[in-house]
């Protein structure tokens, strides 16, 4: 039995992805504080909403997808009812395995994970790091669960804030670029629906080449850039407006924020 504690945006992405892989909804519980949200998910996915204590006592694996600011309160509720031998996986930004362990019964196996919302469509990217009491079997169990909704990479825990900044928040950067490109297409006079289709499929195609061709992105970009052509004219403007340094500053800010969240 799996329990997802906190079924907001990330919790739902994981829930939907896990069910899509053929997991029986009867084997998944949710614990969601907002009643109307719990009801919506029950209707959509057929999963039951139970108290944190019931989730802790019935599920072998607890997946915590609540905000970092709500984490300690939720851990205290779970800790009171958690039998030995359970696996607790947290996807909260900035919450270290040490903090999780401190608020759970001694020796509890914890895994810190950082997924992203494309898990909803089975294309997630998750990084995992084991806590002090998580065995190889626990880590493998967390990897199998998160691997059902995309790719999984093991990282040292010290890299988790950087991972959060890059792949955890990363989808938002791509969506912002997509949004801006669609608006630019509309500015050029394209119908909005046309611009949306052009941008979405260009994103999908570019992402597939980036992942599957084995080529460095710089080479893929060069292949689009004809001498004296349109792409070179566009790229010069992107460089002039500081796209690279904007991204470097952005991921640094995200990493800092992730580190701040661990301070409570
Ligand atoms: N949204 C994203 O792209 C990603 C989010 N995360 C992490 O996932 C966590 C959740 O983020 P979001 O889904 O964006 O936030 P959200 O606000 O959409 O979801 C949090 C949910 O938890 C519920 N909740 C709060 N306290 C609770 C409690 N004690 N018991 C049961 N339910 C409770 C809230 O009602 C809400 O539905 C955060 O820790 C975030 O760092 C990690 C990776 C990506
Ligand atoms: O914005 C956030 O804090 C969460 C963590 C990574 C993506 N969303």
UniProtKB/TrEMBL annotation:
The keyword tRNA processing does not apply. GO terms for biological process: L-proline biosynthetic process. SUPFAM superfamilies: 6-phosphogluconate dehydrogenase C-terminal domain-like (SSF48179), NAD(P)-binding Rossmann-fold domains (SSF51735). The keyword Chaperone does not apply. Its main location: cytoplasm. Catalyzes the reduction of 1-pyrroline-5-carboxylate (PCA) to L-proline. This is Pyrroline-5-carboxylate reductase. It comes from Thermobifida cellulosilytica TB100.
